[in-house]
Write a structure and sequence with these properties.
Two copies of one chain form a homodimer.
Chain A lengths: L2 H15 L7 E6 L2 E7 L2 H4 L6 H13 L8 E6 L3 H9 L4 E6 L1 H6 L4 H8 L9 E4 L2 H13 L7
């Protein structure tokens, strides 16, 4: 089997042993070298965003001292949820290798597939009410950003 | 205007002044009380996941010492990107108030709308290659999780 997926599984397994979170692990690799590895820490940290991929991206960015990880790949034990998939896009990582699917995750009680369905607008029930207010005032922030010629895009 | 959106704008504005990230702020509120506020810190932290909503959720969870924020609401200066929207679902927050739209964000150079299009499978170009490997080995982690009767769901 793939050696980085094996590492991601070991990482997830370590997390399970100490009950730090769900059965998920991720590894970020650059030129064949492991830059960061993480397991899900939602239970340990009480942080609902502490998925393995999010933590691995955070730590890899810290290690490489840059927010652009376009020269990295990510290996994860499960197809990323929409939060983690979007994080991979924001990090500009061009390649993801994954083991289980979002349907597998749904089978063991994780909402990945449901959140995909919400974003695809095919979910039967939407558990989130979304209300737009005060757009015109918020837009001033965007104008301020756009008018700053020294801004750093990301 | 709404006082919590006003706070979110002030927070975003503070971040812009010190060049910590893009023009985005978020506030988490519970029973009319502000639990956490944050601005985008992608540039300050070099963490591509350091969006205002993610940070606000992280800090609110720490403050309340729980990953379930179902008694909270979130106010944000811009419609959440898919990463932040999914994070709001994972945190079980039932209500989001937002100012600008994802189209407004795209106008000033942020990929929010594109990532939505990728997830909706309508994007013309997909910048991420996604490869499934070693599912059967990864599934063992899921079986281990499911067979643990003391597991805490989240």
């Amino acid at each position: 089997m793939n050696r980085f997926i094996k590492l991601a599984i070991e990482e997830a397994s370590n997390g399970l042993k100490v009950n730090e979170g769900g059965p998920f692990g991720a590894v970020i690799v650059r030129n064949g070298e492991v830059i960061a590895k993480a397991h899900n820490e939602v239970l340990a940290s009480n942080d609902p965003t502490a998925h393995a991929e999010i933590l691995a991206i955070r730590w890899a960015s810290q290690k490489l001292d840059r927010f652009n990880l376009s020269d990295c790949e990510i290996y994860t034990t499960c197809e990323p949820c929409p939060m983690c998939l979007a994080a991979i896009y924001w990090a500009r990582i061009p390649k993801v290798y994954y083991g289980c699917t979002k349907k597998d995750a749904a089978q063991i009680g994780f909402d990945d597939e449901y959140i995909y369905d919400v974003i695809k607008e095919v979910a039967e029930v939407k558990k989130l009410e979304s209300i737009q207010i005060d757009r015109s005032v918020c837009l001033k922030l965007f104008e301020e950003w756009k008018s700053n010629e020294d801004r750093v895009g990301y």
